[in-house]
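Cross-posting from the modeling subforum.

Setting up a comparison between two proteins and wanted a second pair of eyes on the formatting. Protein 1 (sequence, then structure tokens):
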Amino acid sequence: MTDQALRETVIRLAQPVIHSLGLIVWGVEIARAGRTLVRLFVDVPTAPQTEESGDAPEGAIFSAITEADSGSAESDHPQGEPSATSTPVAPTSATIEQCEEISRHLALALEVEDSIAEAYVLEVSTPGLSRLLFSLEQMVPYVGDVVEARLLTPVASTDPAAHGGPRRVWRGILTAVEEEGFVLAPVTISPDGEVEEENHPSVLLPWSAVRRATRMYIFKQPQKPGKKPGGKARGKDGSKASGGQKATKKAKSGKKTGKAIADNDHTAN
């Protein structure tokens, strides 16, 4: 099965339970490096969260690890109950429980249809703050944010005043989304999270040339007196890792019954 056919199958099988939970499909990522990885992203059908949404989870990932000789579930991270005096607010992200329910239904449906012949890993996740973008339409709310675009082939700026050759990776402020592409104003990001404009004109990138586009959540690290800037929790470019609760489902040759284990994972992408 091709990657595109697998994406369509995953969406078709997952949509009924996703819609029943009041969520939407954000996208499906397929990675084939050794074991096939199928990662389904789900989100709430509201305006996307921003940096100011401090109470929003950055990314909740749940799937199931299955082993033929196991049959129990455990979790080291129980969810806190809301206060009786708290004011109800609209959800800003899918919950771990919702991701868990989607994962169970999707894993069973994939097994029934025998959609993936080889061993694979299934994850159900929220997009997080640093989120993958699967269409030009999804990019529109993030105009003004930093976006990284990894391309299938190098693309050069069409501005004759531009210096430097074609690039396979462009990083910049998203300034416009057009019918067939988008415009980035190139920037550099320091290890401390400082965003600085490059001495380079804006570049129009066709969506057909994009292999992977990501909205980057830039965290400006506070500098303590007497301390050098920098920190272990940040990437080299100052971007903040989109972590959260995570579990992984491994399936092999149709063997998909067994134990679900949830844990916290805060590793960088």
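Protein 2 (same layout):
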Amino acid sequence: MEELFELLKYAFLGLLQGFTEPIPISSSGHLEIAERLFDLKIEGLSFSVLMNFASLLAVLLIYRSDLIRLTVNGFSYVTNRNPESKSEFMFIVYLIIGTIPAGVLGILFGDYIEENLTGMKVVGGTLVITGLALWYIRNMKGRKNEERLSFKDALIVGFGQAVALIPGISRSGATIVAAMSLGMKQETALRFSFLLYIPVSVGTMLLGASDIINDPNFSDLFVPYMIAFMLSLISSYFSLKWLMNIMAEGNLKYFAYYCFIVGPLVFFFLG
């Protein structure tokens, strides 16, 4: 019975993390809520690293054609200076620039955030902030496409991603809000947000590889971890597809409503 509960616990957390990772309601915040509500505690970082990898694979699958296009055209511009490929090359440069703020601020303030900006009151409050930000952009219809992006745009969206180091602040929400506030089209904002997720996620994987290797419980938890991994991959894939449809229909406001309801409940009843 205990082994069955262990499997169900990891299956649930895998589904939860995968489903909430792409949509703008904060996967880290919801994992903290789940741990509190159901008294589920995951020791070490191996689980979070694996779930991050599962979501990364889902993003790679969905944006594989964009990644191939950017790689081929970016290489073409570097080698042949093909002017038709310049916009793709610059888009890669902007992704690199946008990655810098989260990397730098994560190194400088990661430990402080982990030690001081946790708990249900923080998650409840930041969910409300996420909701307010989503409400702010709910009716925006930008005109800026990939060819009109700038270094300034990349940095500002990158700082949005860095803010999401705080639990309860959605990474996708923060980057999409920043991008659309800068006048990007919804499709461009969404693509930039999730392509920007790739280098950060790869960095997390590389930094967390030692946690998996040195995890004394990894062999014992291999089966639960793999079940959670597959469920996280599947739920991330369909959740991101759902978000694409939501944005195409201009319905981000529904995520704002959700944050306005859940945030205060978490703050007052679990904090």
